[in-house]
């Protein structure tokens, strides 16, 4: 028997302390390691990235307890406070970032870029700096600059954490110096972007999306009238959130993205009726955050309506946020495949 709930009936509240305590890898990456990463033999940059991160990890906490002589005259292992993994979606950047987190001493934090900006909103900038300055490592997944406010905020945050001796590690689809291109007048914020970029050594990871490497094409959407039958067949004994897609989209507008993790808490799978193409940028960006949280928690999807490669308009898929949308389509497709075919995403 399936226990059916609705996401539209949930209005989660999350305190600042709860947000801070949630800065650790999601269950999907809860036990990953450098050894469990499978580099593509045709992409030597992937194996090289593992070695670079292992070397960087050895510097985290390495200065703890050092004497004055060593601090003054010891060999400097790493010239910058941070390491930045640049590469396309699906090449395993998050896996590697989580592996770094698992392999290093604490206190430490792991979260997405959006979660850090949400933390600042909940705590204030100064309290966020105070909270994170005592950490040995801060990992930022999916680093991206969407607007001038984010640019100024993260430039200051990275600089102050670096000055406090915190090691930084980030992943992104965009080189640090090109962050913000096509999204806002980034040329007007080159000083802030350069300050941010100066905190990191860049490691490039090439390759194709592993989620679809050697796997069949994404399953076609189901018919709406078949959703319940398929749901009971696939998710017997589990808790499933079943919603009309349009109602879900409208509901997300009233739930801050910092609460999306709690929104899907306790949900084993989701079923969406009548998925339609999203035509508004703000709506699409909110939905990307939900897609990321579903993927983090490995929540399978059953859906009717348009296929996920039609979820965003052609203009969106070629615009300034295209990398975000491609990542979301990739992840949603993997979860849909898992929902229908029992294939791990």
SSE inventory with pairings:
Blueprint: E1 3-5, H1 16-21, H2 44-57, H3 68-73, E2 82-87, H4 93-103, E3 108-112, H5 113-123, H6 125-132, E4 137-141, H7 148-163, E5 167-172, H8 190-197, E6 200-205, H9 227-234, E7 239-244, H10 245-252, H11 260-263, E8 269-275, H12 281-297, E9 301-305, H13 314-317, H14 322-341
Parallel strand pairs: 1-7, 2-5, 2-6, 3-4, 4-5, 7-8, 8-9
Strand % is 5-15%
Average pLDDT for all residues = 84
The helix-and-strand class reads: alpha/beta
CATH topology name of the largest domain: Rossmann fold
Helix/strand order: EHHHEHEHHEHEHEHEHHEHEHH
N- to C-terminal separation? 25 Å
Q: Can you summarize the main beta sheet?
A: 5 strands, parallel
User: Using only CA atoms, what is the Rg?
Assistant: 21 Å
Strand line-up across the major sheet: 3-4-5-2-6
Write up what this structure looks like:
It is a single chain. This protein has helices spanning 16-21, 44-57, 68-73, 93-103, 113-123, 125-132, 148-163, 190-197, 227-234, 245-252, 260-263, 281-297, 314-317, 322-341, and strands at residues 3-5, 82-87, 108-112, 137-141, 167-172, 200-205, 239-244, 269-275, 301-305. The protein is of the alpha/beta class and 345 residues long. It has two domains: 3-13 and 211-341, Transcription Regulator spoIIAA, CATH 3.30.750; 31-208, Rossmann fold, CATH 3.40.50.300. α7 links the parallel β4 and β5. It comes from Arthrobacter ramosus. Keywords: ATP-binding, Cell cycle, Cell division, Nucleotide-binding. This is Cell division protein ZapE.
């Amino acid at each position: 028997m399936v226990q059916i709930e609705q996401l539209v009936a949930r209005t989660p509240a999350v305190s600042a302390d709860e947000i801070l305590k949630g800065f650790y890898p999601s269950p999907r990456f809860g036990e990953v390691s450098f050894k469990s990463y499978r580099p593509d033999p045709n992409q030597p940059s992937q194996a090289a990235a593992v070695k670079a991160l292992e070397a960087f990890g050895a510097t985290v906490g390495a200065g703890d307890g050092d004497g004055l002589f060593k601090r003054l005259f010891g060999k400097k292992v790493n010239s910058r406070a941070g390491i930045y993994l640049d590469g396309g979606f699906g090449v395993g950047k998050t896996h590697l970032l989580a592996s770094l987190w698992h392999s290093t001493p604490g206190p430490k934090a792991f979260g997405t870029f959006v979660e850090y900006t949400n933390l600042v909103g909940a705590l204030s900038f100064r309290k966020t700096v105070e909270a994170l300055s005592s950490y040995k490592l801060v990992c930022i997944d999916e680093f991206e600059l969407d607007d001038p406010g984010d640019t100024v905020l993260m430039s200051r945050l990275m600089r102050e954490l670096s000055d406090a001796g915190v090691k930084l590690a980030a992943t992104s689809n965009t080189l640090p110096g090109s962050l913000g291109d096509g999204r806002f007048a980034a040329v007007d914020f080159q000083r802030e972007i350069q300050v941010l970029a100066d905190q990191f050594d860049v490691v490039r990871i090439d390759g194709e999306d592993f989620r679809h490497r050697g796997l069949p094409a994404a399953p076609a959407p189901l018919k709406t009238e078949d959703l319940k039958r398929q749901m009971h067949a696939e998710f017997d004994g589990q808790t499933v959130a079943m919603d009309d897609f349009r109602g879900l989209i409208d509901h997300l507008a009233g739930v801050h993205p910092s609460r999306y993790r709690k929104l899907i808490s306790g949900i084993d799978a989701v079923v969406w009726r009548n998925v339609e193409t999203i035509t508004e940028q703000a709506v699409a960006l909110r939905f990307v955050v939900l897609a990321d949280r579903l993927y983090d928690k490995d929540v399978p999807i059953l859906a009717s309506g348009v296929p996920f490669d039609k979820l965003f308009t052609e203009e969106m898929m070629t615009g300034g946020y295209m990398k975000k949308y491609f990542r979301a389509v990739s992840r949603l497709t993997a979860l849909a495949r898992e929902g229908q075919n029992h294939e791990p995403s």
